[in-house]
Design a protein that fits this description.
188 residues, alpha+beta
Length: 188
């Protein structure tokens, strides 16, 4: 763990994980290309060197994962309760309930998509939307995870999948969220 307790590396029997987490209100998410990607590569190479120096045998990556965990806060111009989630996402529209004695209260869903490179299956994109609360206010947890095979059993193969997974997550996030939220986030 780093001195600020924002970044950590976890090594388990079958995993090498590098995380960033928000620990304070002023924390700004570091950019993938400028920070997350080079740090992961540096830490993973350091781990590979250690394993080789200790004579522990070869490391053959078989699965990669990149995940984004978002908490979408309310904005009175777009949404203020879980019943308004259709205004946050472009991929969901509730059915009209005018003639029924019910009203929409909340939304929760999971989706998965296959990922391919040159028409060959390499993994999946998992999407999860869940209403939640943070500090007594409603939020939407929007988790996107790309998980699959490295392009080859090397650091370059791992980085190739992570780059593609990150690209898929960013593009799907943009397509799946509403223009009204893009305006709130000042996305171009």
């Amino acid at each position: 763990m780093d001195a600020d307790r924002r970044e950590l590396v976890q090594i388990q029997k079958d995993r090498f994980i590098r995380n960033w987490r928000k620990t304070g209100e002023g924390d700004i998410y570091p950019r993938y290309d400028d920070h997350i990607r080079p740090r992961f590569r540096e830490d993973f190479n350091r781990f590979l060197d250690f394993v080789q120096t200790q004579g522990l045998g070869p490391i053959r990556p078989i699965q990669c994962e990149v995940a984004y965990f978002n908490h979408i806060r309310t904005d009175p111009s777009v949404w203020s309760s879980p019943a308004d989630m259709q205004y946050v996402f472009s991929t969901y529209r509730p059915v009209p309930l005018d003639q029924m004695p019910i009203k929409h209260e909340s939304l929760q869903f999971r989706q998965s998509f296959t990922m391919a490179k040159s028409n060959e299956f390499i993994g999946r994109l998992y999407v999860e939307v869940t209403p939640a609360e943070m500090e007594g206010e409603p939020v939407i947890r929007y988790h996107l995870t790309a998980r699959g095979h490295p392009f080859e059993s090397s650091i370059d193969g791992v980085m190739g999948f992570l780059d593609l997974g990150r690209q898929v997550i960013v593009e799907y996030f943009e397509l799946s969220t509403s223009p009204a939220m893009h305006k709130v986030w000042e996305r171009e």
